[in-house]
Amino acid sequence: EVRLLESGGGLVQPGGSLRLSCAASGFTFSNYAMSWVRQAPGKGLEWVSGISGSGGSTNYADSVKGQFTISRDNSKNTLYLQMNNLRAEDTAVYYCAKEPRRDGYNPFDYWGQGTLITVSS
Amino acid sequence: DIQMTQSPPSLSASVGDRVTITCRASQSISTYLNWYQQKPGKAPKLLIHTASNLQSGVPSRFRGGGSGTDFTLTITSLQPEDFATYYCQQSYNTPRTFGQGTKVEIK
Known about the structure:
The structure holds 2 protein chains of 2 kinds.
Chain A: E1 3-7, E2 10-12, E3 18-25, E4 34-39, E5 45-51, E6 58-60, E7 68-73, E8 78-83, E9 92-98, E10 110-111, E11 115-119
Parallel strand pairs in A: 2-11
Antiparallel strand pairs in A: 1-3, 3-8, 4-5, 4-9, 5-6, 7-8, 9-10, 9-11
Chain B: E1 4-7, E2 10-13, E3 19-25, E4 33-38, E5 45-49, E6 53-54, E7 62-67, E8 70-75, E9 85-90, E10 102-106
Parallel strand pairs in B: 2-10
Antiparallel strand pairs in B: 1-3, 3-8, 4-5, 4-9, 5-6, 7-8, 9-10
């Protein structure tokens, strides 16, 4: 059974940093690309960043480019999102999502339960 | 960026109704179109990928169609558990953009 478990969310002040983690199980982690998708309160879904199975290719939404960094540790079956210089508009539930292939632009076939980031003073 | 526009933003329907949601892309995306269902407080769930392919375990009353710029999600006979918000999403290129969602409510 595929399982994705996010952690690291919470309340952070504007300008602060946070690192999200997503622990994966139930599949060969290195064989699949992964992404982070966020959802602001009461709003729709926004893809944030993606990474290939090897970790050698990454992509970002323009809204977070230069601010967020996606990475993965295939030896630990864990996906990360380093978020710096956080702003109020980054407040959202952040989901990690598995893709069905190692590379390319794919749908998201499994999702974690999400972790809430609140940026506020 | 490719813009995805869903219509209607919301609809009211009864159990047993046939419901159709439309998604339009701002440029051709071939069949790189996916549909998700999200219930309140839950993560989205993939229903259909590449326009018309039912994800494993999804009931056959969900049907997807279309290609190029115009796509549809049809629920052939609405069930109580189908009341939710539905999103389309393109996987043609990056950034992978979503529609704004369609909320299906009980009439």
